Amino acid sequence: MQQVQQLSIFDFLENEENEQKEGFFFTGGAMYAKVSRDKVKEIPTELGDSILYPGDFVQKLGEKARTSFKMQKGYYLRYCGMYDRALLFSVNDFVSDYYYAFYYIDRNTLLICSNAGAKDIRIEKLVKEQRICRSRRADQYL
Question: What are the b/e assignments for 2-23, b being 16+ CB within 10 Å?
Fold first, then answer.
């Protein structure tokens, strides 16, 4: 019996045999986008009770378990910008053309789509994480 090796999503994405075309795709309960960095609009966006600026880190989007998206301990979503009505996030300081993607409905609602349907993320209070290794400062957008 041949043993199959488990791959992380980033191992899978960086393998040339699995190269994705530009656009949205999903796996493992998350939605992703492959977008060249020059097409990402680095703009602030209203989210919950705050404004999310490119370079801001969050660990969790939403408050309730059923309507939230939470990263594992030690991992953070870094807001990169928007593409086609979707908010794009990288993980920590990882830089590539692959992003976590959430469709932006309004300041309190994001959507994750998959072949099994969609999950709404409800955000009333946005909690930003304070990180030393910020790639950009929010005040450059003021």
Answer: eeeeeeeeeeebeeeeeeeeee
